[in-house]
Design goal:
The complex is a heterodimer of chains A (108) and B (120). In chain A, 0% of the residues lie in helices and 47% in strands. Chain A has 108 residues and is mainly β. Chain A is globular, with a radius of gyration of 13 Å. Classes of the chains: A mainly beta (108), B mainly beta (120).
């Protein structure tokens, strides 16, 4: 099973600043990585798939990069609604599509 | 745009069976283009995929849960169901249904989730 590790567990950033979240896979997964936004009380939302393709309706301030084992989600200018939990998921080896443990993005 | 809505008991007893349903609107569980999944999220384990159902009749379950889980679909009601037997406190989680496009395998639509607490 592919193990996915996210870092940091918690990231404190001020509104308007840039946030960079990391995701690492235990073996190469090509570009088979997705990012999700998890706001309590709401349905999780697909942000990025194919490591770098924004899902429908996702603002351009969200960007994904990386391939192989190292991936990054960058939020260029944080808005209030962006402070939540972010998960990455590999789907190269599916099922199961394993998830990272999540990064909580909090207001500094 | 497809919408998914989970429902079920918020509290179940240890050793009993959990039954959840997921109502699908704006899309069809009979579509061969998608896998219909259950996942769960708990503080200790994060997000965990439970399994999927495809209209072809194919199912697949997480090996860690396989002996206790059944996923099925009611095409007449356009809904997905999950049963988990022999519950323990470790099954306490938010349970989600989600759709994954066939051959793509990421989850493009999710329900809001339903919290299930397992207690004696």
């Amino acid at each position: 099973e592919v193990v996915v590790t996210q870092s940091p567990a918690t990231l404190s950033v001020s509104p308007g600043e840039r946030a960079t979240l990391s995701c690492r896979a235990s073996q190469s997964i090509g570009s088979h990585l997705a990012w999700y936004l998890r706001i309590p009380g709401q349905a999780p939302r697909l942000l990025i798939y194919g490591a770098s393709t924004r899902a429908t309706g996702i603002p351009a301030r969200f960007s994904g990069s990386g391939s192989g084992t190292e991936f990054t989600l960058t939020i260029s200018s944080l808005q209030s609604e962006d402070f939540a939990v972010y998960y990455c998921q590999q789907y190269s080896n599916w099922p199961p599509g394993t998830f990272g443990q999540g990064t909580k993005l909090e207001i500094k | 745009q497809v919408q998914l809505q989970e429902s079920g008991p918020g509290l179940v007893k240890t050793s009993e069976t959990l039954s959840l349903t997921c109502a699908v609107s704006g899309g069809s569980v009979s579509s061969g283009n998608y896998y219909w999944n259950w996942l769960r999220e708990s503080p200790g384990k994060g997000l965990e995929w439970i399994g999927y159902f495809h209209v072809s009749g194919a199912t697949n379950y997480n090996v860690s849960l396989k002996s206790r889980v059944t996923i099925s679909v009611d095409t007449s009601k356009n809904q997905l169901s999950l049963k988990v037997t022999s519950l323990t406190a470790a099954d306490t989680a938010i349970y989600y249904c989600a759709r994954a496009a066939a051959a793509l395998y990421y989850f493009d639509s999710w329900g809001q989730g339903t919290l299930v607490t397992v207690s004696s």
